[in-house]
Predict the structure.
Amino acid sequence: MGKQSTVISSSFPNSSPSLSRSEIIHSTLSNLTHTDSITRCYIKSAIIDKNNNSSKDSLEAVAEDGPSSSSRSRSSSNFSTPSSTGIHLKRCKITASTLSNASLRRCKIAYSTLRDIPSAHRTDVSKSTLDNVSSLRRVSVSNSTVANGSALSRCKAKDSVVSSSAVYKGSIEKSHVAGSRLRKTKLKECDVRDCVIVNTDFRGMVLRNGVWKDGVLVGCFGGREDVVVNGKKIDMPVKNEKEKEKKNEVPEKWMEGMEDSEMESSGSDSESEEDLPPPYTP
């Protein structure tokens, strides 16, 4: 165990994490390999264990002995990982959360449940529920589910479900988004599936198979089906072959430049040798 750490009311069976400048209270660490690393992290009422059975017992202990705050007494932190991979947390503040298979860097997490997240960079997550997230970068998530390999960057999600989608520079509130790509878009009380939306805001809409840019419907999602808006099919007018080809353009065409912008914004977020996770040793 690293120096400058405070551990209270904790047990450490079969665990050997590397801790540095961290405070862990009411916590249990077990079955972790030497590849696991926790650096400059504040963790409270936490469980760091890949064994779900022992986690259940520890959760009950936390509820009895933990802080009086209602948000903290309802849940605790559970960091689980397969034996072949480690959990790497860098400069993170975590309070009463559940995380699994996560590699995080410079993140703040509060009252959250995150599962199966391969990596997250400079992510601010508050009062959130996320599941099987592909990637997060500078996002604020509240009471939302992000699943099935979704990627969020510089956006906000509140009371929403995002599945198999990519969202860049936007906000989603009380909405369901599936199989879609959004850029500079605001959605509120919407149900969106198989759409590409760029620089457009919607409220109280049900959208299917469409491509919107600058507030205008410009095409179909791959030309597979008719565009559906609030349950009504919309036939896109096609004047000539050139317009027909434009109508059936793949969604990646409409999102052109999004990846370049993300790469530019992540240039200052490159990890130094000190921040890189330790190499895996079988």
User: Anything to note?
Assistant: The radius of gyration is 22 Å. Confidence is low (pLDDT under 50) at residues 51-85, 263-267, 276-282.
